[in-house]
Specification:
single chain, 216 residues, Immunoglobulin-like, three-stranded antiparallel sheet, 4 helices, 29% strand, disordered N terminus
C-alpha cells in the first residue's frame, strides 16, 4: 500500500518539471500582448477598496516625467521612440520584445520588419545576419508584412530571437551591447542598450518578427 503514494508523488513532481519548461512561451505572450495579463492579474478589491487577502498588489507603473521633461524633448525628430523589454531565456533561446511608439503629432505607417544593426562593446558592427522572421532559430508566431498605422500615442511591437553564445564576462566580446533599430531598413535608426546585451557571439543569427500593432 505504501508504494502507491510514493509513485503518485513522483508522478506529480515529474509533471511539475515538464510544465515549468513552458515559461518562455507564456512570457513572450505577456510581453507581446500585455492586455491579456492585465485582465487576469488585476487584484479584486474588497468592500473597503483594499486588495482581497491572498492577492498581490499590482506593481506601480513608471513615474510620470517631471515638469522639465516635455513631449518634444523626449520624442526624436522622426516622431517615433524605440524601447526594449526584458530578455526572456529558456533552453539557450533568447527572446526580447521591441516596442515602437508614435510620440509625434501625425500618423506613422509601418509595413514589414524593423531595420537592425548590432554593435559590440566598442561600437563596432558585429557579424550578425538579421533575419526577416524567427526561423530557423525558433518557431514563433510572425504576422508577416502588413500595413500598420499608428496614431499619436499608439505602439507596434516586434520580437527579436537568438540563440545564446558564450560571452567573455570581462571584455563582453560576443555581446551585442548596442543595437540600432529603425522602423524599416534605410529609415532613421535609434540606438538602444538592452539590459544584459544580446549574447549572440559566433551564432551570428538574429530573428525578428514583423511589426504588429499593440492592442489598446
Amino acid at each position: 500500500m505504501t508504494g502507491i503514494p510514493v509513485r503518485r508523488t513522483l508522478l506529480l513532481a515529474a509533471l511539475a518539471a515538464v510544465t515549468a519548461g513552458c515559461g518562455l512561451a507564456a512570457e513572450i505572450d505577456r510581453e507581446v500582448d500585455p492586455a491579456r495579463t492585465r485582465a487576469s492579474t488585476q487584484p479584486r478589491p474588497s468592500a473597503t477598496g483594499a486588495p482581497s487577502p491572498g492577492t498581490r498588489p499590482a506593481a506601480p507603473g513608471p513615474a510620470a516625467p517631471g515638469p522639465a521633461a516635455t513631449a518634444a524633448e523626449e520624442c526624436p525628430a522622426s516622431g517615433v521612440r524605440v524601447s526594449t523589454g526584458a530578455v526572456n531565456a529558456a533552453m539557450g533561446l533568447r527572446a526580447m520584445p521591441v516596442t515602437l511608439t508614435n510620440c509625434g503629432t501625425g500618423e506613422q505607417r509601418l509595413n514589414g520588419y524593423p531595420g537592425v544593426r548590432v554593435r559590440d562593446v566598442d561600437g563596432r558592427p558585429m557579424d550578425v545576419t538579421v533575419l526577416k522572421g524567427p526561423e530557423p532559430i525558433t518557431s514563433l508566431d510572425d504576422p508577416g508584412p502588413h500595413p500598420v498605422t499608428l496614431r499619436p500615442g499608439e505602439s507596434a511591437r516586434s520580437v527579436f530571437v537568438w540563440r545564446y553564445s558564450t560571452v567573455d564576462a570581462a571584455t563582453r566580446r560576443g555581446s551585442g551591447v548596442h543595437v540600432d533599430i529603425a522602423p524599416a531598413a534605410g529609415a532613421a535608426q535609434q540606438t538602444v542598450q538592452p539590459d544584459g546585451g544580446l549574447h549572440i557571439g559566433e551564432t551570428g543569427l538574429l530573428g525578428t518578427t514583423a511589426w504588429k500593432k499593440v492592442p489598446d
